Amino acid sequence: MNIHHKAVDSIPSPPAPADDHPFNPFPHSRVAVTGGTSGLGLALVRELLNRGAEVALVARGQDRVKRVVQELSDAHGIVGDVSRKEDTHPIAMQIVGALGGLDVLINNASDLGPTPLKLLGDTECEDFERALATNVLGPFRLTKALLGSLAASAREGRGAVVVNVSSDAAANAYQRWGAYGASKAALLHLSRIWDEELRLEGVRVLAIDPGDMDTPLHAAAVPDADRSTLKRPEVAARELADAVAAVLSRRVSDLDSDSDSEAIAQEAIG
Amino acid sequence: MIAANLPVQRPSNAKVLIVDRRGHIKHQARSEFVNLLRLSDVVVANDAATLPASLFGQHSRTGRQIEVRLAGRESLDEVGQFSAVVFGEGDFRTRTESRSKPPSLIPGDRLELGRLRATVARLLNHPRLILLQFEGSPQEIWEGLARHGRPVQYAHLPTPLAVWDTWTSIAGPPVAFEPPSAGFVLDWSMLASMSARKIRFGTITHAAGLSSTGDPELDAFLPFAEPYRIPRSTALMVKQAQASHGRIIAIGTTVVRALEHTAAMFGGVVPSGERLATQRLGASSKLCIVDAILSGTHERGTSHYELLRAFVDDEILGRIDQELNARDYRTHEFGDSVFLERAANRTCHSAQPFVAG
Prior knowledge:
The complex is a heterodimer. Chain A is of the alpha/beta class. In chain A, about 50% of the residues lie in helices and about 10% in strands.
């Protein structure tokens, strides 16, 4: 079956470019991407490096992390499994240690549940638990462990954004997508609640549906899909980076308008 | 006092002993800490996350088992070189005072600490205090620390601490060697309450060092020099509080050390930046910046206790000790708290900033 993706959360549009060089907030931004060795995650790592960000990627496979870092030598590779509670703080520690802080966290690592996809009645509990651990608890734990760093970035006017990669399966009930869809629905709601709670701290939490992409995860879910109809991960990565840039730009713009406090800040730092 | 032996950061029955500027003492539930704050106050906490600074391994030359506790660093970005205290066989179930000595250490000795490899660069004026040099890239060292390191453990806790037990809610850069535990009081709900009451909250990042080594000779060196960073937003808040005569409230001794160190360097003002705190604060110190401190309940003779002497005189500290004992306050990292307003006669004059050590 095909799934028909649409945005599951409202993302602000990037500001219209005034010239050929639209505002790029990423140079010196510190970004972490989970599931960063394949599919959308790898495309995001490339896109963000190209935009000048400092990027740490997280993935389970030591060999794959090593291979990606050999190719993308500016990226920091971290081996860890976000579905494991015990890995949360080691991952968080390495992210902040390597980058010196964190402005953007992209929770991209996802688990499809049972493959081939199964009706809920045929889904093993363990497969569902794994999907929940990777798609809900993992992003929750990692975000929680990194919240201090993100809030510190927000206070410094750098902006702080968490992106949880979602799916239209979070909003629509598709047969055989029970484990994945239910876990992504939980992630979507988690994102919305967290965004409400953290707004005062200056930390934004977004759930973004990148659309149907030509990725290993999609191939596992829909092996007979016509790949020519699928979005290239590079395109989805560009769109997602634009969405994050819009949020970061708004933050910078808000600060610019607060000229009084900016002037005081300048005076304070001499 | 009673040793707090459960690693619960915010027990529902946590208490705080409050001392106002005139030395009057009262008691309150710590969960109501925010009620002690006023509209123009600025609250500053240490957002350092705690490194898993305890590394077990082997002293290559002798083959003997050792524990290395990372204890200090020259800068917040330094990950290759640390000062460290070395212990012999045993673990946290033995009080540090009773732990066996490590083999004699000499410069050039190699240490195998899990995947990490290190060398004793030199001894630091004590046979068990070393300058340790890790091998490998920063990435390899971070990975080794994250995977092999364990939080420094305490004999008064029956079960080993996990890393998440030692991180405050606001933990950010992993640079502290033991938890900045005064910050355990904070949760996001409390920060939201402060924000709703227009009480400003800022952070510094201070590489809090070991609180105790169990060796009187080594403990006499404490606190070690500690690097810290004051971000721009916090510098601005401090400046605004000074201008509006708002109180600056430190969550923990490290915040006092950092803000007062900078103020002493810059004639009473606090610009942003990274610096190395080398001073000791005590009974003869005059505080230029910090008006009040929320801290743990410290025992007489510790460096933390000494710092409290900068806020109030010994007569008041004596009364505090009596109250803490009489009312069964809990002590150590997961214990109850004290909130001390600086006594009126403890203010520095900006023309004569105090620097010790």
